[in-house]
Each structure stands twice: as structure tokens, then as C-alpha cells.
Amino acid sequence: MSDDAYARAGVSQGLADDAVAALVRHLSGIETGAPKRALDLAGHYASVIRIGDATGIAMSTDTVGTKVVVAEQLQRFDTIGIDCVAMNVNDLVCVGAEPLAMLDFILTSKADPAVCDQLGIGLRRGAELAGVEIPGGEIAQIADVVSGLELGGTAIGLVALDAVVTGARVEPGDPVIGLPSSGIHSNGFTLARDALAEIPLEDERLGRPLGDVLLEPTEIYVRPVLELLGSPVDVRGLAHITGDGLRNLLRLTAEVGYEIDQPLPVPPVFELIQKLGNVSVQEMHEVFNMGCGFCCVVASPDEEAALELLRGHYPQAARIGRAVTGPKDVLLR
């Protein structure tokens, strides 16, 4: 992956990948003295632990990232709780799990009741949209470590072990259906903020204040995807499109490629980031969702049924490409 502009802005995806590998070298060798409960889902969106012969607990953890910086600049924290829920539950549903609950964690230099009141508004809204509870969490006041605020969470869900969606059954010819994003979501904000640094957050060239555009909450896809999973449609792969863009499809385990020949419309904010940040088209697609926040790969005969169901929630849902024979890669035409 080429991450030239992203690296200049302060984030190296290559170093992040190496850091994960350094951790996994040790964590994968953990010996508990009991049979292993974790399913082998390396690189997938969520982890699944067996809790019986038929049931698994799915787990996911994530943060809002540097989207918090924009919230701090505007002193508006009532939406990023939605992002926190979304980044976790959207990953959980990718393995076919029904999200049940999430714990939030707040890292801050100093606890501020007014800020936490606003955070609670978004967390509650996100939880209700996802159908999950938030029974607890943690606030850590660590001024020696952070100067501002970070918000994250850990979510759990249930999934039948014989219904875990891994992408292993994806075959060449299977359609990839894209669901529209609500904007940048919560990935790539370091690059976005760097590219847009010279524009005041009050600027309205995008039709409303830039700050509003940047704080647009991450879409929560749980209910439509659970409805799809509960339908007769043969769902073979699910992908939350976050950092790495449509290359997230490569987390699905089938040894196939993906040809994207009819991508969803690109929201204007991405065009502005590309222009002002002098970011290549390739890198834009490697960092941002570019208008597609979630993908469903279904069996070819079920394409129309899947589209009909998903368009009941997202009229813009469309087939954006297909799985293809060849190297495991994403080709964007």
C-alpha cells in the first residue's frame, strides 16, 4: 500500500501492520492449559470464542480516532458516541453475529461532566440504532499520557458456530453489493484534517459548515445486515469498509479477487480532500471509504433479492462489482 500523503500527515499504515504482527507473534502462542476456544479468524473483523458446542461470543474493539480532534475544536461531543458504537458493531456483524452490548472507555486529561454528558447523548443514540446495551465502561484521567480526549469501546455479540460468516464460500461471479456511507465515518481523519487544515470549520463550500460534514456520524449497518442474514438470501461475505477502503474485502478468506466496476457515488468531501491535500486517487481509495461504507457478497442467484431487501433501507444500494478468478486483490475500474 502506498501511504505517502497519509505518512506525511503522521500515520504509517505499514508501521501499523508491522506493529500488529509483532504483537500477534506473542499472543498467538498463549497457552492456557485448556483447549483453545478462539476460532481461527486471523485478520477478520471480529474474534469469536466458543462458549458451547453451538454458540460463540463475537468480540470487537475500536476507537473514534482523531475525529475527536474535530469535536474538540468545535466543542461539540454529542455525535462521536454514535461513531464509537458504529465502529464496533459494524465489525461484529461482519462475522454474522448479533451485537448485544458494548462497554465504552474514555481516556482524558481531566474528567469533564459537561463533555461526558454530551458523549452520553451519542452513545445512547448509537446503542439504540444498533440495538445494544451499554451496561458499563471506564473513564481514565491520564494527563501525563493524553492532552485531550479519546473515546473507544469493546462490543460483544452472539453467533451460531455453524453460521459464522468468514467469506470462505465466496465464488467467482458472486456480486458485491455496496451500501452508501454517511461521509468520512471514523477513518483517515489524520489525513483529512491535514488536507483541510487551511479551511475554517465554518466554511460552507460543501453546502453546510465543514465542521458538520466532518462530524457526520458513522452509519450503523447492523439492522439491515441482520435482516439480510435472516432472509433466504445466501450471504457469503460481509465487509465493513474502514481504513484500507475496498481492500477490506480481502479480509474475506476465499482465494478470489474482486473487480469493482460500478462504485457508488463519491461524496464531495472526498473530492475536496484529494484536491487540497494533493492526494493520489489510489491513496484516496486506500485510506477512505469513498462513499461505500459496507459490502455484502451474496450468491449470484440471490442478487436481486438482496438488492430489494437492502434498498428498503438504502435506496442507493447497488451492485458495485463481483468476485473474480485470479490473484487475491481488488481491481477498481
What does this 3D model show about the protein?
There is one protein chain. The protein is an alpha+beta fold and 333 residues long. The protein has 2 domains: 45-163, 60s Ribosomal Protein L30, Chain: A; 175-332, Phosphoribosyl-aminoimidazole Synthetase, Chain A, domain 2. The chain has 11 helices and 11 strands. A 6-stranded mixed beta sheet has the order 7-9-6-10-8-11. α5 links the parallel β3 and β4 (133-141). α4 runs parallel beside α5 (113-130) and α6 packs across α9 (268-277). The two termini are 18 Å apart.
Distance between the termini: 18 Å
Give the C-level CATH assignment of the largest domain. Answer: Alpha Beta
Structural class determined from secondary elements: alpha+beta
User: How many strand units?
Assistant: 11
Q: How large a portion of the residues is in β-strands, by DSSP E?
A: 15-25%
Total number of helices: 11
The spatial strand order of the largest sheet comes to 7-9-6-10-8-11
Radius of gyration: 20 Å
CATH architecture of the largest domain: Alpha-Beta Complex
Name the CATH superfamily assignment of the largest domain: PurM-like C-terminal domain
Give the low-pLDDT segments: none
Oligomer: single chain
- Sheet with the most strands? 6 strands, mixed
CATH topology of the largest domain: Phosphoribosyl-aminoimidazole Synthetase, Chain A, domain 2
Shape: globular
Q: What is the N-to-C order of secondary-structure elements (H for helix, E for strand)?
A: HHEEHHEHEEEHHHEEHHEHEE
